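Help needed: design a sequence for this.
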């Protein structure tokens, strides 16, 4: 008898122009460090980027946790990323979880983290890989690597300060202590806090506001925002000039101007 295949670690669902990606290992609180989850997330991001109908995405977790980050059961020497040999462990990180922040940084489709529970360690960093974050009232965040005697091997030391500022990032990373949703809102880690049962509807409302705009302009705007994190002003202005030259030629730009002059709602087609 053929064994039933396990469900994929990441669910991909599209409704109109909005894609929902769900980390689907609730029984172990959706860790992202295991190879199957890394590969599934990378495949989902590739599919998202290549989906011509996708305008915006929502990333969330199944069950009561967004993601607890690393799989602690696999942190003993010789298991998971920890190969027990420094050379092999370094390679495991580079060919494993470190591919995720690079893939998120390359993604042009905007992505919203809908944090439905605990976002711990790499789970917190995963939320920071997204462009926007909203949280349920019972969500918690922690840059908790030091509590396990390790550091953020997934890019957290680059990601977190750019979201919450250096001082707050240092507090979170050096203490490893969790913060609640209210603190996350206060420090800018999230832009909204909503009731738990309204989390996905609220994420979808935000996604619809993004999806209503011309997709080429949205994608280029996202790219400029990411490049602005590390580029010199002059470099960013050169990139903006080139992108603007393209934007001026799109059908959606012409439609936006015509609709404004005609005093009617625009009808964007992605052209």
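Sure. Designed sequence:
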């Amino acid at each position: 008898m053929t064994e039933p295949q396990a469900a994929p670690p990441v669910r991909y669902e599209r409704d109109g122009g909005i894609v929902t990606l769900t980390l689907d290992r609730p029984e172990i609180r959706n860790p992202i460090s295991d190879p199957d989850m890394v590969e599934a997330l990378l495949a989902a991001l590739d599919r998202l980027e290549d989906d011509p109908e996708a305008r915006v995405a929502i990333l969330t977790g199944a069950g009561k946790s967004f993601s607890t980050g690393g799989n602690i059961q696999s942190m003993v020497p010789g298991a998971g990323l920890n190969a027990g040999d420094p050379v092999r462990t370094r390679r495991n990180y580079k060919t494993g979880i470190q591919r995720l922040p690079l893939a998120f940084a390359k993604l042009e489709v905007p992505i919203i983290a809908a944090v439905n529970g605990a976002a711990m360690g790499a789970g917190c960093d995963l939320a920071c890989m997204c462009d926007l974050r909203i949280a349920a009232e019972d969500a918690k965040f922690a840059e908790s690597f030091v509590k396990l005697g390790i550091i953020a091997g997934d890019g957290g030391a680059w990601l977190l300060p750019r979201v919450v500022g250096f001082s707050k990032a240092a507090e979170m990373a050096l203490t490893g202590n969790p913060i609640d949703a209210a603190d996350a809102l206060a420090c800018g880690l999230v832009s909204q806090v909503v009731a738990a049962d309204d989390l996905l509807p609220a994420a979808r409302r935000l996604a619809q506001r993004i999806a209503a705009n011309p997709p080429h302009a949205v994608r280029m705007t996202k790219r400029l925002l990411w490049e602005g994190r590390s580029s010199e002003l002059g470099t960013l202005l050169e990139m903006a000039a080139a992108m603007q030259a393209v934007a001026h030629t799109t059908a959606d730009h012409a439609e936006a101007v015509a609709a404004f002059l005609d005093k009617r709602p625009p009808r964007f087609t992605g052209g």
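The mean pLDDT is 93.
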